[in-house]
Design a protein that fits this description.
- By secondary structure, the chain is an alpha/beta fold.
- It folds into 4 domains: about 160 residues, 3-Layer(aba) Sandwich (Molybdenum Cofactor Biosythetic Enzyme, Chain A); about 60 residues, Molybdopterin biosynthesis moea protein, domain 2; about 90 residues, Molybdopterin biosynthesis moeA protein, domain 3, CATH 2.170.190; about 80 residues, MoeA, C-terminal, domain IV (Beta-clip).
- It has 7 helices and 29 strands.
- A 6-stranded mixed beta sheet has the order 7-4-6-5-9-8, with no helix packed on it.
- A hairpin with a 5-residue loop joins strand 24 and strand 25.
- The two termini are about 60 Å apart.
- Bound molecules: adenosine monophosphate and magnesium ion (MG).
């Protein structure tokens, strides 16, 4: 057996980082930038008002309350050059260019207009710069707005749009082939012939990939026939950047992923027994130096856990991510999470929820056998149980959060919030 860390390092270090390509901003969410991005412009491009009110010179209202004649009115988008004379005010709306000569804006709520709007009474003295947004106060021309290696968020895309870009250089996202192996596998409705089961792994793996933003190539179910599998792998080498298979990597007679990868790659195929449960066996090879093939185990929970522990970090590396391994969070076990010492790390399917004080709690979501996919579906996290006798109720436990969207909340579901 080898450790999780050793197996993961072996897999990740053998995977290539994909090259950069320009992408339309509209399609770049979650992509990783190749190089730093600098702004050639100031944002905002001109000094502008942060409020609806009156632009003025702060020194003219030092003795407030003060009455000033209203010389003009400027709206957002107004392209005129408006100058503010000494002792004057200009009516101004949020986002409008600050008139030349003005250095502050008095919010409309602290003013009274008089003489049918021809003059305004400013109630309070203001400091210079009040309610003024200077040119470049969000983004200064020449500054770095997005460092290399950034994972583009919605706000990043907004920043790039604001500096006038419509495309961005990002690492290509890996196109990932998915196939299930097994003579016993079928899919879809209808009665099953004796000995057959339905494929549960492909739907899970394809959904995980889609959620991570990787294009998926569905390569279907491959029977336990080495020639057929070999052709499928060769097809993947033509159209995919990586291939993820399930089944056929243990010690059975028909464990063909192991057998075919050994045939195709010789000693460059690593068949590992990783010190984890579930998901002990893993086959891994990089075909022709360019197509990483991850042979995940066949049991449905094992293939999902193996994806999280090995395939996800490998694909993240290919997509240019710098942080490959998901950080664990600390939670409290609400019940005992027992296990036997056997040299392995256990990944227990748990449901995590947040209590009223913001702390995480977990309890098992159901049966822990590696074929029990339902308990996986009812889980939103994996509790990491190091070798030993487990974790007792009330004790801290590290978890890998799998599904933040389904993070539970302890206590009554619909709490009423009382506003102060
Ligand atoms: P294997 O490693 O191919 O022997 O598979 C281990 C176990 O997982 C066997 O019971 C298989 O029938 C089952 N299995 C393999 N692939 C799948 C799949 N795609 N969906 C559901 N069960 C599977
Ligand atoms: Mg099989």
């Amino acid at each position: 057996m080898i450790s999780l860390e050793e197996a993961r390092d072996l897999v990740v270090s053998a995977c290539p980082v994909l090259e950069g390509e320009p992408r339309a901003l509209r399609a770049a969410l979650g992509c990783v930038t190749v190089a730093p991005i600098l702004s050639s412009e100031d944002v905002p491009p001109f000094a502008t008002s942060a409020m609806d009110g009156f632009a003025l010179r702060a020194e003219d209202v030092a003795g407030a309350p003060v009455r000033l004649p209203v010389a003009d009115s400027v709206m957002a988008g107004d392209g005129r050059r408006v100058a503010l004379g000494e002792g004057q005010a200009v009516r101004i709306m949020t986002g409008a260019p600050l008139p030349e000569g003005a250095d502050a804006v008095c919010m409309v709520e602290r003013t009274r207009t008089d003489d049918d709007g021809r003059s305004v009474i400013i109630e309070d003295a203001l400091g210079a710069g009040t309610a003024v947004r200077l040119a470049g106060s969000d983004i200064a021309a020449g500054s770095e707005v997005v460092p290399a290696g950034s994972v583009l968020s919605p706000a990043h895309l907004g920043v790039l749009a604001r500096i006038g870009l419509d495309a961005v250089l990002v690492h290509r996202t890996p196109r990932v082939g998915i196939l299930s192996t097994g003579d016993e596998l079928r899919e879809g409705p209808g009665s099953l012939p004796r000995g057959a089961i339905r494929d549960g792994n492909r739907p899970v793996l394809m959904a995980l990939l889609e959620r991570a933003g990787y294009p998926v190539v569905d390569m279907g179910i491959v029977p336990d026939d080495p020639a057929v599998l070999r052709r499928a792998i060769e097809r993947a080498a033509e159209g995919c950047d990586a291939l993820v298979t399930s089944g056929g990597v243990s010690v059975g007679d028909l464990d063909i992923v192991r057998i075919v990868l050994r045939d195709m790659c010789g000693d460059a195929m690593h068949w590992m027994q990783v010190a984890i449960r579930p998901a002990k066996p893993l086959a891994f090879a990089v075909l022709d130096g360019r197509l990483p093939v991850l042979g995940l185990p066949g049991n449905p929970v094992s293939s999902l856990v193996s994806f999280e522990l090995f395939a996800r970090p490998a694909l993240r590396k290919m997509a240019g991510h710098r942080q490959l391994i998901q950080p664990t969070l600390s939670a409290i076990a609400d019940v005992d999470l027992p296990r036997e010492p056997d040299g392995k790390t256990y990944f227990t399917r748990v449901f995590a929820e947040v209590d009223r004080t913001g702390h995480l709690h977990v309890r098992p979501s159901g049966g822990q056998d590696s074929h029990q996919l339902l308990a996986m579906a009812q889980a939103n996290a994996l509790a990491v149980l190091p070798d030993g006798t487990g974790v007792g109720a009330g004790e801290p436990v590290e978890i890998l959060l799998l599904d933040g969207d389904r993070l539970g909340r302890a206590g009554p579901a619909a709490q009423t919030t009382t506003l102060p």
